[in-house]
Amino acid sequence: AAAPVRLWVKTEPFLLGALPVPPPARLAPHYLRKMAAYVRARAAEGCFPRLSWPRWRHIACGKLQLGRGLAWLYFELFHSLLRRDPPCRLEWAEAEAACASVDELERQRSKAGAPSRAGRARGSPAQPNLSLSPLLFLLFLYVQQVNKVSLRRSLIGEEWPSPRTKSPSLTGKSASENKNWNDQDHRAFMQSHLSDMLELLLEPEQLTASFHSAHGSLVSYEAVCALGFLIEGSVNKSRTVHPLHELALWHACHGQNGYSEISKAFSFPKLERWLRSCLTTNPFGMTACLKSGKKLAWAQQVEGTTRRAKIACNTRVVPEVFPMVIMSQVYKQTLAKSSDTLVGAHVRIHRCNESFIYLLSPLRSVTIEKCRNSTFVLGPVQASVHVHSCDNVRVIVVCHRLSLSSTTGCTFYILTPTQPLILSGNQAVSFAPFHTHYPMLEDHMAQVGLATLPNYWDSPMLVCKESGDASVSRLLPPSDFYTFVIPFEMEGDTTETPGGLPHAYQKVLSQREQKVQIWQKTVKEAGLTKDQRKQFQMLVEKKFYDWLVQTGNRQQLDSLVPPAVGSKQAAG
């Protein structure tokens, strides 16, 4: 009888690790097989068992013909997947911020690694370790294929909605529309490409001349440990999550997966069959969250609309897995939360219109899709914020990475230690410095390992050349810049924008403040009678009210009045 093991594909390598854009042609499986052979053959040159940045740069730029910026992007993106402690993230941020030039930064990246034996003996501080496991990195690069657009599949219709591709969805979208989130796609990808990925992990003597496996090929224990980057599981229906290698070594599974106590390795065909037979739906993924997750009554149901606001989160939360919150169709309202449910969560916000959404907790990742005319104020995001197919939205956030695709007229007020990624299909993007605060902000930043420096808010990277030239984005003119006040009371020590503002923006704010003071002085010295002051106040209030209506700010103020949202809801 088969051992009662359930395996599933992890969410994070796809959700956070797969860049939401078709991969370069030179990252195709054929080239990754050549790279696998190359790194193993050059173990003495710093390629194996740890791959340093200079060696990857040489492979990426010299062999795979990738640009240096893209090479670093993949290298750094892989690192952001690893659960490094916040102090390690802050240590690297400090080292990078201290670099005064591009050349100095490149030297810092090249030397970053474990200290030498002599350095350890002297007690010198460790450099942030930027080397990585080449086996895990090869799998990470292979996962980029999940967003490859297949011409054949497009022609026969599988890239488009069909009864066969539908999955349970809060949003009614087809499974193929967001492959980074959809665990059904992740499972199908693993089933389709498992053989290729296992071959990447084989030792050279187990491969044929064309880099493929033979019937007698053996898979090492180290290779199965590496595959644990993508797969984990449990025994029976236990709530305990186990790494893949622990389950594979379980004695009850040896008959199915071909593990030999003598060779300390697995039979390739048996291991592949065992993995395929045990792969099931991720119990912590989007499908489970939508099907059986806890429904949250965070949003109002607006009368007179057919839209039903839906918010769901995982019911099964375990320490090894980040929680998930999915929010859809919040319409014409303000929603404010600072909640344990959000801490460390992957958040997906979908089809929210004409709303103001405040999620003031430290988050793992945020995806904002198909939203319009809305403002999103987010707590610090440890990994990434991805904004897709949105019109006229404002996003205000401190995050490790921001990426955009198919957006129009959106403005991003950001503090980020990596270059914002402009993918395909964007128009009229504006970037501005992060310009707000709430009392717990700096505490939350420390929890996720984000510092105020370095800050690349004004240095976007155009990842897709087909997305046009640099004119798709601009820096917000200081004359259009205003601070943003978060209108909720909370406990905490932060009283100003972390890191301050760039001089040009601060200067404009100071000039406006000066005009207000001059105006107040003029009114005070005008010598108005009591009736004149009353009449003047009424006139000013009317002008202000007209302005509120014209700008849409009236709706925002109205939606702050209880029972919609009060200052206490933010603590809910």
From TrEMBL:
GO cellular component, one term: spindle pole centrosome
Entry keywords, A to Z: Cytoplasm, Cytoskeleton
Location (main, coarse): cytoplasm
Keyword Cytoplasm set for record: yes
Cellular compartment(s): Cytoplasm, Cytoskeleton, Microtubule organizing center, Centrosome; Cytoplasm, Cytoskeleton, Spindle pole
InterPro entries, A to Z: C-CAP_CF_C-like, CAP/MinC_C, CAP_C_sf, CARP_motif, TBCC1, Tubulin-bd_cofactor_C_dom
GO terms classed as biological process: maintenance of centrosome location; maintenance of Golgi location
PROSITE patterns: C_CAP_COFACTOR_C
Pfam families: TBCC
Gene3D superfamilies, sorted: 2.160.20.70
C-CAP/cofactor C-like domain location: 305-450
Polar residues bias spans: 164-179
Region (Disordered): 161-180
Family (UniProt): Belongs to the TBCC family.
PANTHER family named in the record: TBCC DOMAIN-CONTAINING PROTEIN 1
Official protein name in the record: TBCC domain-containing protein 1
